[in-house]
Specification:
Elements: H1 2-14, H2 24-28, H3 30-39, H4 53-57, H5 60-72, E1 81-87, E2 94-99, H6 102-119, H7 136-149, E3 154-159, H8 169-176, H9 183-193, E4 197-199, E5 202-204, H10 217-240, E6 245-250, E7 253-258, H11 261-276, E8 288-291, H12 296-302, E9 310-312, E10 315-321, E11 327-333, H13 335-352, H14 358-376, H15 382-400, H16 411-420, H17 443-448, H18 454-457
Parallel strand pairs: 1-4
Antiparallel strand pairs: 1-2, 3-7, 3-8, 4-5, 6-7, 9-10, 10-11
Helix pairs in contact: 1-6, 3-6, 8-10, 13-14, 13-15, 14-15
Amino acid sequence: MATDLTRIGTKARQCPTLVFTSLYHHVTDIDNLRDCFTSLDGRKAVGVDGQTKAAYAQHLEENLCALSARLARLGYRPQPKRRTYVPKPGSGHQRPLGISCLEDKIVEEAVKRVLELLWEPLFLDFSYGYRPQRNPHQCVDLLGRVIQQHPINHVVEADIRGFFDHVNHAWLIKFVAQRVGDPRMLRLLRRMLKSGIMEDGLTQATDVGTPQGSIVSPLLSNIYLHYVLDLWFDRRVRPACKGHAYLFRFADDFVVCFEHSEEAGQFQLRLQDRLEGFQLELAMDKTRTLMFGRYARRDRQRVGGKPAQFDFLGFSFYCGKTRRGAFKVKRRTSRKKIAAALARFTDWIRKQRHRHRTGELLARARSRVQGHLNFYAVTDNSERCQMFQTTATRILFKWLNRRSQRKSYNWDTFNEVLRSSGWPTVRITRHMCPFRALPNVYAKSRMWESRLSGSVRGMGSN
């Protein structure tokens, strides 16, 4: 079956307009289902049935045969997803998640593997979210280099309000049908989208949205925005611009860079109409056009202000200078992300300080601090990383000494313990030089421009 999937991937790359009419048997194949089960993380939260990976594995072959048979006779129906909430970083709100049952996760993984082979060759190079061999650092790095090396003077910072909760099912199925002509696969997708959400014992129907937490949701969101945003920008917006224009998207987060202010303003107006045509809403309170680039400091100083900065993927981009005074795009951890990370660390150590021995507690705290530094320790961000490391160290010192009425450590002995435990130090691990050579971000989109199907061209004309 792996060989068959490889052949599908090869055919999908060679024929970007081909519609595949026989895909469903890959989802029902027992070997494929077994491989999907093996790839699941057994530590993840369970769904409404409480089934764990270890319990399912006790009768694995029997369970997989029954699942395959139900899929083959079209008798499989996904169970409702369990609603849970997690804190949303940088705000007081909570992010709703939908946790699938284990068997549904197996099917979602199988569907994702098939669809990803069809869509990955089509996705444009400025889309980075939840794609193989792509990560946020690549997006952040290339964005900085584009602003540094092209005449970019304005940046549109946009936000789609509740994107995952407002994906229109009819439009999504129409988009998927551009590559999938197997009615059984489309029927399975409809059932997965409409499986419902269970909260407080009550099941609610889901007529819109694709819940965060589902394995297949990131891919479906990329397919949706590929047509709604990416192709529209690349085929209609960018060619109509007289100056430079570049889009950078990571899932539903995106920024757009322009050379001319009037084109940035027109894009923001057109973007609102474009999203409304696909039942999405632009969060106007989080959407703005700002001056940003090599001349932003000079232009802002004329009116007595400082150049603006914008946040993207946890970093604040700002107009800095080199040692010789030349313009340089720089990044640092956004204040909201630092505040949220420190709040999570404080809450964790406050709850865990009595549950583990000191050695294990220090090891877990070290892992949390190191994880933050692994992501944010990039060029020009050592100051913010040092601030996080220092503050987290003081928080740990405070709560370790609150385990009893008598202080466990003074500052000198505490630092000695940290040194012996290998406490993280700030060291730049990801070097992002905005002066490095740029790749052709839009090379692949130009290659396939003349090969788009007429049905895709007709999907919106704003």
